[in-house]
Design a protein that fits this description.
By secondary structure, the protein is of the alpha+beta class. It has helices spanning 10-15, 18-28, 42-48, 58-66, 80-88, 101-105, 120-130, 144-147; strands at 2-8, 31-38, 70-77, 114-116. It binds adenosine-5'-diphosphate.
Length: 153
């Protein structure tokens, strides 16, 4: 099973659309194994978006990510990183395809509702950035035989 990080950005929290987004992941069959509310600091934002700190639009990212709390989630599933990335859609919400989260929930390049890990390696790094061992929950999912065939697990 793979794990991936989802950040429901402040724009999602303030707009009151986090329930709808979480519901899409649940319906897909991804398992929530950690979830918490979190307020970004300048330092954490610079660490998380270190690949963008030199871009002219970085101050907009910082302001947006610190504007209100975010909701952080770890989702688990077979190929979870790629599945969630497909569900996310293109970075610019105006170009994201309908049916994707960004395509259905936003009109902005920046205020684009979610961050999702873009590779298995980055997912590990990003989960360690925000969660510690005691944040994760283990529980049975009795319907897993109906979510996956036996040779997929
Ligand atoms: P993604 O979130 O799709 O993985 P990136 O890692 O490239 O995309 O960018 C991180 C975040 O920075 C984006 O989700 C978006 O909020 C913001 N961003 C990226 N590029 C731009 C841009 N050209 N203008 C404004 N915001 C941007």
């Amino acid at each position: 099973m793979e794990r991936t990080l989802i950040i429901l950005k402040p724009c999602s929290v303030v707009r009151g659309i986090t329930g709808g987004i979480i519901s899409r992941f649940e319906k897909k069959g991804l398992k929530i194994v950690a979830l918490k509310m979190y307020r970004f600091t300048k330092e954490k934002c610079a660490e998380h978006y270190s690949h963008l700190v030199d871009k002219p639009f970085y101050p907009i990212i910082e302001k947006s990510m610190m504007a209100a709390p975010s909701i952080l989630m770890c989702l688990e599933g077979v190929d979870a990183v790629e599945v969630v990335r497909q569900m996310t859609g293109s970075t610019n919400g105006r170009k994201a395809l309908p049916g994707t989260l960004r395509g259905d929930y936003c009109m902005s390049h920046q205020e684009n509702v979610v961050h999702t890990s873009d590779s298995v390696e980055n997912a590990r790094i990003e989960l360690d950035r925000f969660f510690s061992e005691e944040d994760y929950f283990e529980y049975d999912t009795p319907l897993s035989d109906f979510l996956y065939a036996s040779d997929e697990l």
